[in-house]
Every structure is written in C-alpha cells, then in structure tokens.
Amino acid sequence: MDLNGLLETTLAGMGYELVDLERSAGGRLLRLYIDKPGGVNVDDCAAASHQVTRVLAVENVDYERLEVSSPGLDRLLKQERDFVRFAGQKARVKLRVPVNGQRNFVGVVREAGAGRVQLEVDGQVLSLELGNMEKARLVPKL
Fold first, then answer.
1. How far apart are CA 66 and CA 80, in angstroms?
2. Residue range 83-107: average pLDDT?
3. Helices (H) and strands (E) in the chain, counts
4. What's the confidence (pLDDT) of residue 136?
5. I want to staple 140 with a disulfide (CB 3.0 to 4.6 A). Which of 29, 73, 92, 116 is the partner?
6. pTM over 0.90
7. From CA 66, how far away is CA 32, in angstroms rounded?
8. CATH 3.30.300.20 spans which residues of the chain?
9. Is 90 exceeded by the pLDDT of residue 25?
C-alpha cells in the first residue's frame, strides 16, 4: 500500500496539502505535516488527525501514535511545486554535490521548472537541480 498516496488523497479531500510524512520508531510513529493557503491552526490539525485515524483504521495500517502539525515558519521545500508556490521568498538550500565548490546556499527562489530551481544568491542567479538538493527550507521572515 502507498501510505503517502493514501494520506495525500485523504488530506486533499479536506482542503489540506501533505507537506511531509515521517515514520520513526520502527514505523510505530507517524508524523504528518499539513498546510493550506493561509496556514493551519490547532483545529485544522485536530480535524486532520481524526480523519486520518479513521482512514488508517479502515486500511489496517499498523501504528501506535499519530502526530499532525503545521510545517512551521521554516517549511521544508521538497517538490518543484513547493518552489513554484514560494517563489520570491528566501530559502536555505543544502546540496548533495557541490556547485561552484559550495553545498550550502541562502537566496531568493526566483522560479522552478523542468527539474531545476533558480535561486538568486548575492545578485547572481544559480540554476540548481532539484535532484541534487539534500534539504531546502524557507528562511522565516523576522
């Protein structure tokens, strides 16, 4: 069973986006990060938790604990659509393989498409492969 697909479908039906799914403690803990335009609050997390609990019971998914939360101000950027959505905002990117001798960048996301992200760093636009990104997060506005 594709747990990620099941959760994405369930949450999309409620108006939420599944930002990330973490399984830990031997798969006994499921941690979901959800979002929607305008952000999520405690009531959103509770509603999603109740619905996901029901779906997991029907699908006989074995787990002990479910946690549902917002992705936070330093939201993880994983897919091309994340970079498209947050174009114009500052992001911190860590690469697997260095570009120009560097693996860590902080810059403004300019655009994304065709498996690449355009990141403006110190006035220079870099074209980074999405597949080379180890981790990317938004930099919170202070």
1. 27
2. 96
3. 3, 8
4. 97
5. 73
6. no
7. 8
8. 3-69
9. no
**Which pair of structure tokens corresponds to residue 119?**
């990141």
What CA dihedral angle connects 77, 15, 140 and 101, to 10 degrees? 10
Q: What is the mean pLDDT of residues 24-37?
A: 89
From CA 35, how far away is CA 38, in angstroms rounded?
A: 8
User: How many alpha carbons fall within 13 Å on the CB side of residue 67?
Assistant: 14
1 pLDDT more than 80: no
- Spelled out in words, what is the top-level CATH class assigned to the domain 3-69? alpha beta
Spatial neighbors of 97 by CB under 8 A, at least 6 apart, are 103, 132
**Contact predicate 131/114, CB 8 Å:** no
- Look at the domain 80-138 and name its fold: SH3 type barrels. (2.30.30)
| Maximum mean pLDDT: which of 16-25, 41-50, 69-78 | 41-50
Q: Report helix, strand and coil shares of the chain as percent, to nearest 5.
A: 25, 45, 30
For the stretch 118-125, contacts whose Cβ atoms lie closer than 8 Å and that sit 24 or more positions apart, written own/partner, are: 119/91, 119/93
The 3-state DSSP class for residue 21 equals: strand
- How far apart are the C-alpha atoms of 132 and 113, rounded to whole Å? 14
